[in-house]
Amino acid sequence: MLAYVASRLGQAAITILGISVIVFALARLSGDAGALLVPPEATPQERQDIRDALGLDRPLPVQYGIFLKGVVTGDFGKSFRFGEPALEVFAKRFPNTLQLAAVAAVVALLGGVSVGVLGATHAGGMPDRVITIIALLGQAVPSFLIAIFLMLIFSVNLGWLPTSGKHGTLTYIMPAVSLAWYSMAALARMTRSSMLDVMETDYVRLARLKGLPESRVIWKHAFRNALIPILTLFSLQLIFFVSGSVIIENIFAWPGIGQLTVQAIFSRDYPLVQTIVLVTSSFLVLLNVGVDLLYAFIDPRIRLT
Amino acid sequence: MASEANTSPLLEVRDLHTHFVTRSGTARAVDGVSFTLNRGQTLGIVGESGSGKSVTCMSIVRLLPKTASRIAGGQVLFKGRDLLTLSEDEIRAIRGAEISVVTQDPMTSLNPVYTIGNQMEEPLRYHQHVRSGNQLHERVVGALRQVGIPVPERRVRDYPHQLSGGQRQRVVTAMAIECHPSLLIADEPTTALDVTVQLQILRVLKEVQQNLDLGMILVTHDLSVVARICDDVAVMYAGRIVEHAPITEIFDRPRHPYTQALMLAVPKLNASRERLNTIPGQPPDVRRLGSGCPFVPRCPKATERCREEYPPTTTVGESHTVACWEATS
Amino acid sequence: MTQEAQGMPQSAALGPRPRTAVARTWNRLRGMPLLPLAILAVVVFAGIFAPFIEPHDPDHPDLLRNLQPPIGFGGAWSYPFGTDSLGRDVLSRLIDGARISLFVGLAVVIGAGGLGTLLAVVAGYFRGAVDVVISRVTDVFLAVPFLLVAISVVGALGASTQNLILVLVFMTWSGYTRVLRGEVLRIRDADYVKLAQVAGCGSLRILGRHILPNIVNPLIILATLQLSAVIIIEASLSFLGLGVPPPQATWGGMLSAGKDYIGVNNALVILPGLAIALTCLSINLIGDWLRRVLDPKFRAL
Ligand SMILES: Nc1ncnc2c1ncn2[C@@H]1O[C@H](COP(=O)(O)OP(=O)(O)OP(=O)(O)O)[C@@H](O)[C@H]1O
Ligand SMILES: [Mg+2]
Q1: Which CATH number is B2-98+181-328 given?
Q2: Is domain C33-296 given the CATH code 1.10.3720.10 in the classification?
Q3: What is the C-alpha separation between C239 and A4, in angstroms, rounded?
Q4: What Å distances lie between residue B214 and B10, B203, B205, CA to CA?
Q5: How far apart are CA A260 and CA A27, in angstroms?
Q6: CB B327, CB B255: distance < 8 Å
């Protein structure tokens, strides 16, 4: 078990290193990294100071070394727009995104799983067909469209929900539902097919042969075994929650990093952009390690080997 | 049978029909099966793959795929009650409590994500409402000991993948008997196991059957297994029982040409594991059965009459019935 | 029935019976998603022939005729779907949007699919250190929230159709590599490939004759899945103003502009929304069907 944790953490470290290379490369991709990383209003003297500090006139490997050193020591440079260290700006907004993503993840998981199980247990029947259609729609209708339609219905027409900002429970509803929408559909489909596979196994049949009530057969015996592929998909979806938040936060004026990213890009605040991409990605990688550990908890065959 | 007139049989299956509705037609998987079974008696069911043995067993406990299958007729009288008319809750209370089933593949029959103890406690909780942890533990350990699991106290904390195939089948058997059923259905319980392990499991089954005075139905491909532990044998072909007789009768005087072919296909003394597929020809497609005897294409003695009309079941000896025109005439 | 089985024991061996061949074709046709195929055909047709069938210049503003409703809601036949806030013809812009959606979608699918397949084949066929490196790089790319990166790259390089395509190719090839690498590994170990190797077939020949034909099915399925995903991403980015730059008409851009006129002219939101939803739904349904026909066991993503 310890070896398993260690190896997963090792892989995560390599992945994060890889991400840092991508982020580093992105700024150089445009040709002149100086144009991106130096504030436009800097004096020639300041400009040269920053160029020296970042090593922009030296070979790429050296530049990367300097970049990596900054990352490790928590020095991501200064945000042009906010005039504060980029990491601090990021840290102020990140919790808002996390809260929204967490609510959306719960909505997607609970909604997708219950809908998927319902479909599997009524396979071929009416509920199954309705669910299949909803799931298909979920994967075909982009989240921002859902967001607009929700707004149209619940804010403009009915006036029940506030359109924007983050103040109180009500403001979570529409952003969370739109953010969860796509994943919920994907999870529902995966849950359905995974459950259908498991329901045909011998051990589920044996559970029925033992005379257990159907609810117990489904939730205890079938569901726990169906959970691994569902979780795998869910861990892939975690990326979607963050990616999706870029769009959803901008629609609902949610003060998280999605909104921050777009603000940073439009104000050409590249140090901030770098920080957001690198820290968020690393966070997701570590989250996935957590999911892997969850597998071990669910399936003893992973835990005990 | 003239004796035992005072006791009704443990299980009496009367003219059972089970159909599968598929795109390519209705499969008459079980097509008029009747037999009786008493307490303490072991009935072997043999027959080629697809002859309807498993479907017969699952029809008794009413666990067939919901959407595709239909029990189209007949009665399954268990201690006098017709199981086919019970409500879903009533039949569930019987499954695993009064009628237990041991299935074919021990490697896949146990849930991989729960401990042996956890899975074995379930029937006790649900059927006998045992709640106390100590009592559950004792009962589980007792049942495991009964099927010959060494150090059962330790095994209850193990997961299925930590046990060998033979041990898993013992666990499944222990699970089947822990609520003290009166009928045990074993559907090819040893097919997936090594020869030596097979013998052990059969011995275990025989032992628990005798100790608990169970009625037992043993489905198998292996006539040597039948010879070892069954009292009666029913031979199935294309969804029907074509011959039914006590064990000595069937080995000494097989009357149906199919049974005779089975006897030839497996050398009597040699405990061969070979499946019964050495008879020339293919079993019929149960979706396309005509009105005649379905064995006709493979039967050396088939006549015009066999093609046209299914033979009636006739008694040809003490408790020996057969459905064949040849035996009738 | 039984007589037939008795009388003609070899007839089955002589060749495929026409009845089953016909039946098989019929079965396939019956399962075909006709409506989605029809919808997609319309979109593709509109995309290809956009300049010839657009009733108006999609980018030409006419402020005197702005915000006209569609037919049936008080609009006139000259502008069947109405006009937007600048008086541009919505129908023409939808058609132009189909063109750009399909173009970006196909370009990204071809680019990412090609790159991903190439890397998968190289990794799976040659194994060893190459495989390790490619697999690790694949993991890295799979772990990155690609929309975030895509946005930042477009931000850094400037928004243009070309940049959008390049970024999406660069960020999405990894899905292909991950799935197809496994397939290649599996096929490479198959007996007939080993046999071919023993028989002295060169690597290229084995790749061309045995490996590529066997990964075509999963590749098609993945590509279909990605096509609708890319169309959605392009729409999302254009919606944010980070995709295809205006004045080029895009469905996402139309939605973005239209959302300010909710309540005034809802068609400006509903029509491009429908265009995206119907197109992607059709592609997904066709993808599902392809998956059923080509590879029932395949269930990645
Ligand atoms: N789920 C199903 N759907 C359709 N037909 C089925 C289904 N299950 C069984 N059948 C049909 O029922 C017939 C009998 O099947 P059954 O499983 O009882 O055979 P069996 O005698 O147990 O064979 P085996 O020795 O292989 O276990 C088969 O020929 C098959 O056509
Ligand atoms: Mg069977």
Answers
A1: 3.40.50.300
A2: yes
A3: 43
A4: 9, 14, 10
A5: 18
A6: yes
For residue A216, what is the nearest residue in chain B, using CA coordinates?
B122
**pLDDT value of position A305:** 56
* 8 Å CB contact between B98 and B78: yes
The answer to whether the beta carbons of residues C108 and C169 sit under 8 Å apart is: yes
ipTM for the whole complex:
0.85
What one-letter code names the amino acid at A230? I
Q: Where are the domains of chain B?
A: 2-98+181-328, 99-180
**C-alpha triplet A32, A69, A293: angle, nearest 5°:** 110
| pLDDT single digits (tens) A88-101 | 888 999 999 999 99
Closest by CA to C148, choosing from A241, A198, A10, is A241
Can you say how many angstroms the Cα of residue C97 is from the centroid of all Cα atoms in its chain?
16
pLDDT in tens, B172-181: 999 999 999 9
Is C273 touching A (CB cutoff 8 A)? yes
* Ligand 1, pocket-test mutation among B21, B45, B55, most atoms within 8 A of CB: B55
Q: Are C238 and C253 in contact (CB under 8 A)?
A: yes
The two tokens of residue C242 are 């980070």
Residue-wise pLDDT tens digits, B103-157: 888 788 999 889 999 999 999 999 999 889 999 999 999 999 988 899 999 999 9
pTM score: 0.77
Compute the distance between CA of residue B88 and CA of residue C300 in angstroms, rounded to an integer. 38
Query: Which residue range(s) make up the domain with A74?
Result: 1-81+268-305
pLDDT tens per residue, range A154-207 = 887 787 877 777 777 778 888 999 999 888 888 888 888 889 889 888 999 999
Residue A300 is nearest to which of B92, B127, B159, comparing CB atoms? Answer: B159
**B307 contacts on C by Cβ (under 8 Å):** 2-3
Please tell me the residue having the least CA distance from ligand 1 atom 10. Answer: B29
DSSP for B8-45 reads --SEEEEEEEEEEEETTEEEEEEEEEEEEE-TT-EEEE
